[in-house]
């Protein structure tokens, strides 16, 4: 039985046994999903909760904060936190942490896999063989990564890891973000449309949220041209999904490789029906190795905070002013 001063932590959509196991060594844990009556449960334990351990893409907003008057920290699993109202947390003095860096290589690896799978139609070729069609004739020729000009939307931690890998493939690399980066040799475009006009392959690696909602729109897609290919390993909301479907159906662009969707886990049937799409169920960081590292970083944040040492990896909006 933990001592009375043991902080109370609420787990929301956080089901990893290693995370819960480590947290249980130090904290008193409560699991929202196990409560038969969520409202009654929050009435009972909400006033005692000082920390949250939440799963990826978990909605955390003012309504929940209202139920947790002693809340000090939200420790989120994943680097993207567009479903957490970090601005509202800031106003209430609540720290928000995420798990950057430990997943960048894994997501970049997946992005390159998705890029090659989309260009060379690897899943389609696999389906062709399994259907016994090879005996009838060779698989049709595909487009290629050779001589492609690749644009990265969002040259952050993951975007840079993608660019480093692309260097090995010998393609030209350009990028767009709100600010040019002094320490890279890739060509900077100050507008997304300008980037799309200069490249034929767009890799989306910018965060979701109001600032990026639907910025890959019909005009950007059209600018990629008829050989255009879009890869999205960031958030589905960054692409205007209806415009993407229309562009693919009309042949305005050639193909798309998508790990993320606007309304996950719902995927538009139109995307599934198209032959020139490669679709993945949001598996960018989904390896045992990387998910375990993300879990360790989440728990490190809670341990560090309640040890009085501040958060390890706070999000930029968080009220924590300490420098680590
Ligand atoms: P990051 O280091 O913060 O990089 C984000 C980049 O996006 C920055 O270079 C930023 O540059 C740019 N950006 C931000 N707002 C923008 C805007 N309005 N217009 C254009 N560019 C903008 O984040 P990260 O660690 O690389 O992660 C990127 C995203 O990947 C996450 O937010 C998450 O949604 C997604 N992700 C997906 C998976 C998956 O499983 N598929 C896994 C992990 C992460 P400026 O500040 O200069 O604009």
UniProtKB/TrEMBL annotation:
Chain ranges of the D-isomer specific 2-hydroxyacid dehydrogenase catalytic domain: 15-315
Gene Ontology molecular function: glyoxylate reductase (NADH) activity; glyoxylate reductase (NADPH) activity; hydroxypyruvate reductase [NAD(P)H] activity; NAD binding
Top-level taxon: Bacteria
Entry keywords, A to Z: NAD, NADP, Oxidoreductase
SUPFAM superfamilies referenced in this protein's UniProt entry, alphabetically: Formate/glycerate dehydrogenase catalytic domain-like (SSF52283), NAD(P)-binding Rossmann-fold domains (SSF51735)
Matches recorded under InterPro entries: D-isomer_2-hydroxyacid_DH, D-isomer_2_OHA_DH_cat_dom, D-isomer_DH_NAD-bd, NAD(P)-bd_dom_sf
Enzyme Commission number(s): 1.1.1.26
One Pfam family of this chain: 2-Hacid_dh_C
Top enzyme category: oxidoreductase
Protein family according to the UniProt entry: Belongs to the D-isomer specific 2-hydroxyacid dehydrogenase family.
CDD domains: HPPR
Name of the molecule in the record: Glyoxylate reductase
Organism: Methylorubrum extorquens DSM 13060
Domain D-isomer specific 2-hydroxyacid dehydrogenase NAD-binding: 112-284
Gene Ontology cellular component terms for the protein in this record: cytosol
